[in-house]
Amino acid sequence: MAGVDLPFACTCNTLRGRLIGVSRSNGTRIECFCTDCRAAEVYAGQPDPAPGAVQLYQTTPDKVRIDAGEDQLAVFSFSPKGLLRWQAKCCGAVLFNTVRTAKVPFASLRTDHLEDDSALGPVVAQAFVKKSDGKQGHKGGGKLLMTMVTRVLPCLISGRWKQTPFFDVETGKPSREVRLVSREDRAAVPLP
Ligand SMILES: [Zn+2]
Ligand SMILES: [Zn+2]
To answer: For the chain, how many structural domains are there in total?
Structure first.
């Protein structure tokens, strides 16, 4: 399926790129209510998304092309094994999440940074949403799992996982030095 290219940019427009070949069938639009996604925004000096969720589009990293300002790309994480949170140094905008290895080709883009997100279709899953019994859970969890099976595996098998701005595939290391946020600093993020 052909799909369309969707431009994205950080808030100050220095780091710019495109999601390529996007169609409703090759990514999953979700919203995440987890504390870490919220804390990442606040830690990075961005507006607090609460009580709303962080809007994400889950896809594979080979769909991500950075066209300008790649030197502004930086990455932090809240724990040694936690998600990598990729941001633009220029304005702090958090643009992507990835896992810690290129061999799990998985990337989420913050859809607020897309010029136009209408091609993505509706939000189909909610992660860490508060349910009526007060507990946290996922809605549309099957869709989250399908992402793994229908996108991540083909991306691995075809070798497309090697096309990623986030990793040096030779060394397997992230393409930028990961700034590990200390427990104290994470705890100090104001989340009223
Ligand atoms: Zn989250
Ligand atoms: Zn910027």
So the answer is: 1
Residue 127 placed within a domain = yes
Q: Is residue 83 part of a domain?
A: yes
- The alpha carbon of 133 and the centre of ligand 1 are apart by a number of angstroms equal to 20
Q: Point out the ligand nearest to the CA of residue 53.
A: 1
Structural domain span for residue 113:
4-183
- Any idea what the CATH number is for the domain that residue 37 is in? 2.170.150.70
Tell me the ligand closest to 87's alpha carbon: 2
> Tokens at residue 54, please?
């962080």
**87 Cα to the center of ligand 2, angstroms:** 9
The rounded Å distance from CA 76 to ligand 1 centre is: 15
CA of 85 to the centre of ligand 2 (A): 15
| Cβ neighbours around 104 below 10 Å, total | 15
Q: Looking at this protein, which amino acid is placed at residue 89?
A: K
Which tens digit of pLDDT belongs to each residue from 53-107?
A: 999 999 999 999 999 999 999 999 999 999 999 999 999 999 999 999 999 999 9
Q: What's this model's pTM, rounded to 2 decimal places?
A: 0.93
Question: What gap in Å lies between CA 164 and CA 144, rounded to an integer?
Answer: 21
